[in-house]
Amino acid sequence: MEKFEWKDAIKTNIRMLKLAGLWPPGDDSYKLNLYTLYATISLTLFVIIFNLSLTLNIFTVLDDLKAIASILFASITLTIAVLKSYYLTRNMKLLKELMVTINSDLFQPKSPTQRELVEFTLNPWKKAYKMYNSMTMAAFCAWSVAPLTDGSIANHELPFPAWFPYNYKPSPFYEITFLYQFISMGVTSFINVNIDTLIAALNVYVGAQCQILCDDLRTVDLSQQLRGCIKHHKAILTFAEKSNKFFNWIVFVQFFTSVLSIAMAMFQMTMDVPFTTDFFARVFYVTAITIQIFVYCWFGNEVTLQSGNIPSATFESNWIGKPLEVRKSLVLIILRSQKPIKMSALNLFYLSLDTFMTIMRSSYSYFAILQQLT
Amino acid sequence: MMKFKVSGLVADLMPNIRLIQGSGHFMLNYHADNSGALHTLRLGYCCVTLVFMLLQYGCNFVNLVLERGDVNDLAANTITVLFFTHCITKFVYFAVRSKLFYRTLGIWNQPNSHPLFVESNNRYHALALKKMRRLLYIIIVWTSFSAIAWTSITFVGESVHTTKDPENENLTISEPIPRLLVRAWYPWNAMSGMPHMLTLIFQVYYVFFALAHANLLDSLFCSWLIFACEQLQHLKEIMKPLMELSATLDTYVPKSADLFRAPSATSQDNLIENDYNSKNEDLKGVYSTRQELGGHFRGAALQNFGAGGVGPNGLTKKQELMVRSAIKYWVERHKHVVRLVTAIGDAYGVALLLHMLTSTIMLTLLAYQATKITGVDKYAATVIGYLLFALAQVFHFCIFGNRLIEESSSVMEAAYSCHWYDGSEEAKTFVQIVCQQCQKAMSISGAKFFTISLDLFASVLGAVVTYFMVLVQLK
Question: I need a surface site. Which of A2, A162, A365, B456 has the fewest CB within 10 A?
Answer without folding.
Answer: A2
